[in-house]
Amino acid sequence: MTYRGVLIGCGFFAQNHMHAWQSTPGAEIVAVCDRDPARAEQFRRDFGVAESFSDAAVMMATLRPDFADIVTTVETHPELVKLCLSHGALTICQKPFAESYAAGLEMVKAAEAAGRQLLVHENFRWQKPFRHIRAAVETGEIGRPHFLRLSFRHGHDIYANQPYLARVEELALMDVGLHLFDVARFLMGDVDSISCTTQRLNQRVRGEDAFVALLRHKDGAVTSVECSFDSRFGEERFPQTLAQVEGDGGSLELLAGYRLRRHGPDVIAEEDVEPPVPLWGTRPWHLIQESVAAFEAHVVEVLDGRAVPQPSGAHNLETLALTRAAYRSARQGETIHMAPFIAAGAER
Ligand SMILES: NC(=O)c1ccc[n+]([C@@H]2O[C@H](COP(=O)([O-])OP(=O)(O)OC[C@H]3O[C@@H](n4cnc5c(N)ncnc54)[C@H](O)[C@@H]3O)[C@@H](O)[C@H]2O)c1
């Protein structure tokens, strides 16, 4: 069976979505939509899609697809997600899921009311190196993990392809922080408390472009998350995240150049975990492009009833709450405990 899908938002990142859908067995994009009709039509031609629309409501009512892939910026998500769910579609929403916890909760409730699956396109956990690390942790290779370090620090000009990022008030935590918090939860479990400090290194951007966060997980493990969009290295590392996981039986190190070093009690082994470059892909984007393809293959498994959403909107709501808590911690200089913070509405 081939599921019929539509894509909404024909901008920069949606090109990766479209290429990946074209190589995903079991799914076909039957229409694309952008409020700018010229963009929608360009996508229709470039990707050989049957139809293009400039109004998502008209497209959903006309086609009633099995799934909808929303690749617009955050402020449009609540309206579009609720629209797609109301037409019975499994709905995928790009990150950031929502501008506020309240807006995210509204979408999760809409999915429950519609009885439809809602997924957030969180592709970092689908990156090949993190799939390998998770498998190693699950098989008990390093014993009980008690420490994780994630480091996403680079100097790549992200503002060239995404000029809106230079104008947003909330930058690094909302753009990449939530990816890293999702990976921390994926590898180490849910979080009890967080503290965070932010920096604005590039004075030409409005929001924070660097932060360091410390997460305490419910089982006592800790994660240190470092992120910067203004770091200088002789060899650019973008878009790689470096990682270190330590357990009571060994450690794993994800080093630059996709080298995964496994430290057992008395052995050190190194493995190359670089993802393949998709036929339609280019370096250094292949890390992200392959993860988009892996996520979309997962969506077909969810449509088939063979997998549960990784992650669902409900799961991602807690990641969003962590991001909101990180902002409060940075502002007030205090540790935020997640249970009371969420019970009080996660700020906004
Ligand atoms: N997961 C990742 O690795 C990753 C990477 C880059 C961007 N993103 C996310 O993808 C999203 C899109 O980013 P982008 O850089 O492609 O943005 P973009 O501005 O290039 O594209 C968004 C498109 O959506 C269209 N649009 C907006 N509202 C619409 C509506 N109501 N109906 C139809 N079309 C509408 C716009 O006209 C535009 O063409 C953002 O949320 C961003 O954070 C994710």
From TrEMBL:
Every copy of the GFO/IDH/MocA-like oxidoreductase domain together lies at: 130-253
Matching entries from InterPro entries are given as: Gfo/Idh/MocA-like_OxRdtase_N, Gfo/Idh/MocA_oxidoreduct, GFO_IDH_MocA-like_dom, NAD(P)-bd_dom_sf
Indicate the segments forming the Gfo/Idh/MocA-like oxidoreductase N-terminal domain, all copies: 6-120
Pfam families, sorted: GFO_IDH_MocA (PF01408), GFO_IDH_MocA_C3 (PF22725)
Return the protein name: Gfo/Idh/MocA family protein
Q: Which organism is it from?
A: Plastorhodobacter daqingensis
